[in-house]
Amino acid sequence: MVEREVLTHEGSLMFVKVALKKGFHGDVDQHIHEQVSYINKGSVEFEVGGVTSVLKEGDVQYIPSNVEHRVKVLEDCIILDVFTPIREDLVE
Question: What PANTHER family has UniProt attached to this entry (predicted)?
Answer without folding.
Answer: H2HPP ISOMERASE
